[in-house]
Amino acid sequence: MNTPLKRVVVTGLGALTPIGNTVPAYWEGLSNGVSGADFIKLFDVTKFKTKFACELKDFNPENYMERKEARKLDRFSQLAVACADEAVRHANLTQEGIDNDRVGVIWASGIGGMITFIEEMKNFFGGDGTPRFNPFFIPKLILDIAAGHISMKYGFRGPNFATVSACASGTNALIDAFNYIRLGKADAIIAGGSEAVVTESGIGGFNAMKALSERNDDPKTASRPFDKDRDGFVLGEGAGAIILEELEHAKKRGATIYAEMAGGGMSADAYHLTAPHPEGLGVINVMRNALEDAGMKPEEIDYINVHGTSTPLGDVAELIAIQKIFGEHAYKLNISATKSMTGHLLGGAGAIEAVATVLAMMHDTVPPTINHFTDDPAIDAKLNLTFNTAQKRTINAALSNTFGFGGHNASVIFKKYVE
């Protein structure tokens, strides 16, 4: 006899982004169309083609942990711990009566400890060849360590691992957490992702791929999804966290429920290392899979937070797929690309965009796609891409898309919680 799947709800949020270091500040930036892009301050960009990114503002790890502890963590793990702490406090997940054996952490990163790797290689190759490596080199580098640090901080002993699927990593973390909870394997899971690769190799590597915008004359308008003159994405850093919890467990402890996670979908393009399928086949499949998993019809979706990176090929392919899945209802949707404000957080993108999607539902406000100046004739002008200004509307259900190099696609659907 099949056991009915349990319902999964959102009881806490965390955000550490280039436009706000807390959930309220993040929402203020999103709803007001703030750009997080500026010239890079983390390293000397004199010789780089792209000299700007969406860096965090005024982040000090010692505001979240002791200096000695911070030195044991790569920046991506520092961001993870800081962001998860906001979500845990928001959900009051440390209250008495919670079974820590049934609370897990599933945390994503696309790249992990790149800063640590660079520092250690500089020290080694700048020396006499003697291997003098930091004893924390490997623990700081590996992608799973962020989930480990979060679990150790709170003593959460449930499922604990990392998801890695390039820019879809954060969304995959949410889907895995959703599945573990609805199958009864956990009561609650901290799910999210973080990335910190605004570095010499991060900028240089993406420049070599010709993936980044090179609009050095006007960084704040460089991320311009769906604009005719878009020329690549803007690299970002930060973290997002969502506390997913089994409904009855949340109700029993008196938790505030902010939304319900309805479903998730995954697919592969099986086409190209970095380019999307020109007909959006993988994207069509992933949205269809998410809708089927949620038991919902396309007409029930009000808002789509798109992957929308501001690349010439990707933006068009995603909209083609949306029109194929949603048909005439596509013209009734609000669609927006919040990467226009935050930049692209790679493995953390799905997490902060899922947080944005939940916040949009909570406030019945669609955050805008900023930096639109010129219509692209390849894009259907009848689509509501929420250009430049936030729009008020009732949002009962929303979908968030993320796609990663290698053809990895992941989508999640949230809806307003109803008893």
The proportion of residues in beta strands is: 15-25%
Report the average pLDDT across residues: 96
Structural class of the helix and strand makeup? Answer: alpha/beta
Helix coverage percent of residues?
25-40%
Shape: globular
- Record field, number of beta strands: 14
Please provide the ordered H/E string of secondary-structure elements.
EHEEHHEHHHEHEHEHEHEHEHHEEEE
- Radius of gyration equals 20 Å
How does the major sheet shape up?
10 strands, mixed
Strands of the widest sheet, in order across it, are 5-4-6-7-1-8-14-13-9-10
**Count of alpha/pi helices:** 13
Termini gap: 26 Å
List unreliable stretches of 5+ residues.
Answer: none
